[in-house]
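Sample pair:
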Amino acid sequence: MTRWRRIAFGLLDQGLSSFSNLALSIALARILSSSQFGASSLAIVGLGALLGTTRGFLGNSIARLSGSPKVKSESAFAVSVSLIMAVLVLALTVCVQLAVGHFDPIVSLLSASVVLVLPQDVLRWAAIADQKLRDCLISDLIWAVVSLAMLFTPAIASSAAACVAVWTMGAGLALLWLLLRTGVAPTFAGLREWWMRGRTVRLFFGLEGIVSSWTGFVSLSIATVTVGTAGSAAMRGGGLLLGPLALVLSAIPMLGIPELARSGQVKSGRDAWQRLRIVAWTLALLSLLVGSVALVLPQSLGFVVLGDTWDGTKRIVWIVAIEYAGLGFLHCASAGLKALGLARMVFLVRAAYACSCFIFVAVSGVVFRSAAGASSALALCGVVFAVIVVQLLVRGNMLERVRIES
């Protein structure tokens, strides 16, 4: 399979995976009351953050071994750890509900689904690293089809518990397919030795995954407080218009790191950037193109897409496009640092970026009291840190890589 076919398969797979999660949110929003959906939404956001953590903690290390015979053993240990994490999450959820004296069946079902969702996501990384993208695509297609049936089957769509149960069943079928096709099975023997061998790299990759998962959510929450719900809704609308690009950004580590590892020719940050810069420039230009098109979009069509939010979104969509242009460079350069094993550097940069977003969004919101001010703060952080990370990748000290990996 050629490089571009692998990328196309990977992007399609990421789209199917995102659709399954979106379908569950839509199904629950149609059934539950606002208060009930608030608790379920929090559980779904938590599940997303947990997936971000496991992708950093386990997925990046699998991706870096692409093309190596060690992929299967690394994946087996990673699946084992994901199962342990899932059981701990389920136990913690039960304990918290017992402590507060309130048992939410939907939250409990979502917590139970983690036992299937986390291993399936880890095996997606394993399949991509082992160049089995077709199997990865089929797995997520199975889950997406089951999710689609959940949305349009009246007997299921009328019950929140049934929706979560069917969605979880889809995750189980997707997991089963990958277990059969990859030949990876959980391995607990030697787990401690495996963890000790690469604990520093995995720990910092995991921390970076946590920070990445929550940066956008916390930034938007701060904006809601400082500029109001209408302003934050306009910012959400801008993100929705650039949603397809956000999908590509989320797929860069899963696709970019294996490509760099598989080439066998990436010995320095400069080598990595030579292979990633075309993707970064393409994403940046596409972001600016989407922003330009949105500016001239007819008012009637804008209302069809975003409803009453369109007026506010149109004023800031170009600013959001600049932010996404910077994020394209930021994500590509971060993938290069990850491929080189510079886990500590990736985490420190990501943490600094997150803190900058929180501070600048809060300050700009208080000073300007507008969505444009808060969006400008995010755009500024995105562009500045894109420049920083690219420079770190191209001119970074490779002794840091040797020290971490040793």
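The radius of gyration is 21 Å.
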